[in-house]
Amino acid sequence: MSDTGNHVAAAGDTGRATHGEPVPGRSSRRRLTVVSGPSGVGKSSVVSELRRLDPDIYFSVSVTTRAPRPGEVDGAHYHFIDRAMFDRMVAAGELLEHAEFAGNCYGTPRGPVERALAEGRQAVLEIELQGARQVRAAMPEARLVMLMPPSWEELVGRLTGRGTEEEAAVKARLAEAERELAAAGEFDVRVVNADVRTAAGQLLDLMNTDFESIREHHE
Ligand code: 5GP
């Protein structure tokens, strides 16, 4: 991967951006933004910065069957639930999307996202690729953003640089990262995370820009 390309800049080239202009007849789902990207790309940091930049945005809190990590707060970082509860939520249609990742289940509670959108708020989901694909299928108007590393070498450096991982675990993450990056073309926009503040600012600009003017046509 030599060129990750910053398509945000290309998006602005259309000259048709209309900031914050409502489009009659379009569903509120256009205010839904999905942020995906490989492990190590800095999704959480960029999303935290976005939260700081615009406190009005609704950030979905996922359910997960994985155990909390030190410092993680139930109800803030995730809703930590057991597998039986997860399966019940899936069966009851309470999850907007769900996926298994690295042996654990994750899902987006549907109700809070739909309420936020109905109230006219922007909503952001930070989820992995399979979930992003489900949102694409269920809500085609949603905006799909992939966070990209500045280069493959940089991502390898970030993943191996954590130092705490077993070599096998790092290899597995890299293989997964390669698969996720290979799907970049399925996303409406790709934002390169060379710098957290810049990437979060670009994301916010995108969210405040009329979607049709930035949607890329995939060859
Ligand atoms: P972690 O266990 O490191 O917090 O998250 C692992 C992966 O699951 C990350 O890529 C994260 O974005 C993704 N993830 C978190 N919540 C959800 C969710 O509700 N749905 C899906 N599909 N992925 C999620």
TrEMBL record:
Provide the protein name. Guanylate kinase
By its UniProt entry, which NCBIfam families does this protein fall under?
A: guanyl_kin
Gene Ontology CC entries for this record: cytosol
Tell me yes or no: is Kinase among this UniProt entry's keywords. Answer: yes
UniProt-listed PANTHER family: GUANYLATE KINASE, GUANYLATE KINASE-RELATED
Organism, per UniProt? Amycolatopsis rhizosphaerae
The record's keywords, sorted A to Z, are: ATP-binding, Cytoplasm, Kinase, Nucleotide-binding, Transferase
Question: Which residues are recorded as binding ATP?
Answer: G37, P38, S39, G40, V41, G42, K43, S44
What the entry lists under SUPFAM superfamilies is as follows: P-loop containing nucleoside triphosphate hydrolases
Q: Where does this protein reside within or beyond the cell?
A: Cytoplasm
Q: What does this protein do?
A: Essential for recycling GMP and indirectly, cGMP.
Q: What is its EC number?
A: 2.7.4.8
Name the Gene3D superfamilies on file: Guanylate Kinase phosphate binding domain, P-loop containing nucleotide triphosphate hydrolases
Q: Which family does it belong to?
A: Belongs to the guanylate kinase family.
Q: Where is the composition biased (Low complexity)?
A: 34-43
Question: Pfam families from the entry?
Answer: Guanylate_kin
Q: Locate the Guanylate kinase-like domain: which residues?
A: 30-208
Q: Which domain of life is it from?
A: Bacteria
- GO MF terms, alphabetically ordered: ATP binding; GMP kinase activity
- Name the segments for region: Disordered: 1-43
Q: Which reaction does it catalyse?
A: GMP + ATP = GDP + ADP
